[in-house]
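Reopening this one. Same input as before:
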Amino acid sequence: MSRRSTPVPDDRAGHVLLVSSALGALNTANARKPLSRTGRASVLCFFPGWLTSELPLHAVAWQALATLVLAWRGALRSWKGWAALGLSAWSWATLSTIWRQSTEASAILDDALVEGLGDDLVAGSVPDVDHSDLHIERRRIIAGPVARWKTRYVQSRNLSYGDAGRRNQLDIWRCADLPLDGRAPVLLQVHGGAWIIGNKEQQALPLLAHMAENGWVCVSINYRLSPRATWPDHIVDVKRALAWIKANIADHGGDPDFVAITGGSAGGHLSSLAALTPNEPMFQPGFEDADTSVVAAVPFYGVYDWTNRDGTGRSDMDDMLARIILKTTRDESPEVWNDASTMTWVSPDAPPFFVIHGSNDSLVPAEQARSFVAMLRAESKKPVAFAELPGAQHAFEVFDSPRTISSAGAVHRFLETVRKQSGHEPS
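Same output, byte for byte:
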């Protein structure tokens, strides 16, 4: 005897829809504006806010599918179902607003470049950049976090640049047909992860693919992580990788005289610190004579001060930094904390900077990026561009989204302008 499926009772289906719609609306509200920016709650708000703010149309589709299924099962036969539908309608409208805001990133980034580089950019000093690359590519965005096409540009994997095993390994990204005897510009990527987690395969893949596709040689590195590693091991490894690049990148088609650096979060801290401390002996033990200078830096959502000197940072980071990263408190070793802070090293000799941050960053306050940029602009003789992207969370450019695609194009334009200004453009 066959059984016929029976709908879930009206009240139960309506209750399930109401609960799921309320959770969806709460998640949408958090994506629109983080519910917390302090303490552990800020970390809990980050992950769902990050995914939803970069994939709002995916969230609409998922919520709509759940609503249709439960409506078919009788949810709209109760007042709870109709209340849930009202919540969902608000959520979908807000998610649509989040999507529209993300598609405006290109214009904001373009304005930042114009402000930072002035007539050099406006006059067309980046003739080789195809501006059509900045348009929104639907298939890439639909694939989102699961897209893996980018890795086709990795030509050399797990090359050793130091003696710390896999934590001192790097990958080289380049087009397969790039001449090995060429002089392609070079970009070093430093991953984030709070100086504790992460690896070279996890961050900035869309940016590295974009740059490789446009004739750059890119290098992504691992570095020693805490708690096993103690500061300054992390920055020493970044410097050691730079020294390796200067000595070896020509064998891979790269120009050792034109090396830029980028990174996100902890990588934003390390890349900006490396850029402001070229050839600094305290960060180059045993290889003090190696050249570790860079021609430009593009830090994403970085931490620029561990001392919180102007109150724009997060004081609740102190315990983690003291216990896990530095293994000493600020009172015990103030000079170590100070030397580890990017802001300490701002000077007139800073290379060109393009600082990018999201206004919705619940892990690293955008206010610290603004403060860092103000310091750079007051001291540096070189251009400083700054883009604060409305609605962007921490780690927004990890996978393909409108902001990611636009950011990759903007970074390319910035670095190509620096390249032209420095006289390193192709003959």
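So the earlier flakiness isn't reproducible anymore. For the record, The beta strands are 154-160, 169-173, 184-190, 217-221, 254-264, 297-300, 353-358, 384-389.
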